[in-house]
Amino acid sequence: MRIIGGTFKGRKFFPPAKNWPTRPTTDFAKEGLFNILNNYFDFEDLKVLDLFGGTGNHSYEFISRGCKDVTYVDKFGGCVAFVKKTATTLEIEDHIKIVRADVFKFMERDTHQYNYIFAGPPYPLPTLTTIPDKIFEHDLLKEGGWFVLEHNPNHTFENHKRFREVRNYGKTLFSIFE
Fold first, then answer.
1. What HEC string does the chain produce?
2. Residue 79 in contact with residue 55, Cβ under 8 Å?
3. Could you give phi then psi for residue 156, rounded to 5 degrees?
4. Global pTM?
5. Strand 96-100, strand 114-119: pairing
6. Which of 6, 146, 148, 154 could tie 64 with a disulfide, CB 3.0–4.6 Å?
7. Domain coordinates of the chain in residue numbers?
8. For residue 66, which of 84, 45, 80, 85 has the smallest C-alpha distance?
9. Contact, 22 vs 48, CB < 8 A?
10. For residues 170 and 75, what is the distance between their CA atoms, to the nearest angstrom?
11. Architecture of domain 27-177
């Protein structure tokens, strides 16, 4: 795992991923997504929510680019411990709130709104297609904000009323909602 931009550009981390339920976003796909985001957002002003945060890949990328308010959520203890350790290593504890929780339960009780929400759920998650509706049902996205859902070509969201566009990076797709 590598941070591709900002203050920590080039830093590599090696999560002890043996038997982890994670699928880190490829550098190619992540770079494509962040090129789009660079043209739309001022990272320093964002309040970010990283759902199914896994190794923390997206959270670190936002903080590296100047974001000071990231909430990371994952239910796997190994991932949460790794993200806490990495946050300490990078000295970014003041910029990241690390939450160990089931994402769906977190969405039900969270009372904050975010400028940018990213969800990178396991592709075979049976409830993957319900995530966009849950985001909007619980009013988690601020006006003018984006919700980005990472998924594979087996899913399509183009008929969703809040769908903006989809970006395709091989087997990784990012559906963007606003």
1. CECCCCCCCCCECCCCCCCCCCCCCCHHHHHHHHHHHHCCCCHHHCEEEEECCCCCHHHHHHHHCCCCEEEEEECCHHHHHHHHHHHHHHCCCCCEEEEECCHHHHHHHCCCCEEEEEECCCCCCCCHHHHHHHHHHCCCEEEEEEEEEEECCCCCCCCCCCEEEEEEECCEEEEEEC
2. yes
3. -140, 145
4. 0.94
5. unpaired
6. 6
7. 27-177
8. 45
9. no
10. 28
11. 3-Layer(aba) Sandwich (3.40)
The per-residue pLDDT string of the chain (178 residues; one tens digit each, 9 = 90 and over) reads 889 999 999 998 887 766 666 666 778 889 999 999 999 999 999 999 999 999 999 999 999 999 999 999 999 999 999 999 999 999 999 999 999 999 999 999 999 999 999 999 987 888 999 999 999 999 999 999 999 999 999 999 999 999 999 999 988 999 999 9
The pair of three-digit structure tokens given for residue 8, joined into one six-digit string: 């920590």
Please give the order of strands across the beta sheet that includes 69-74: 96-100, 69-74, 47-51, 114-119, 141-151, 172-177, 163-169
In contact, 6 and 61? CB cutoff 8 Å: yes
Give the C-alpha separation, 61 to 68, whole Å.
Answer: 11
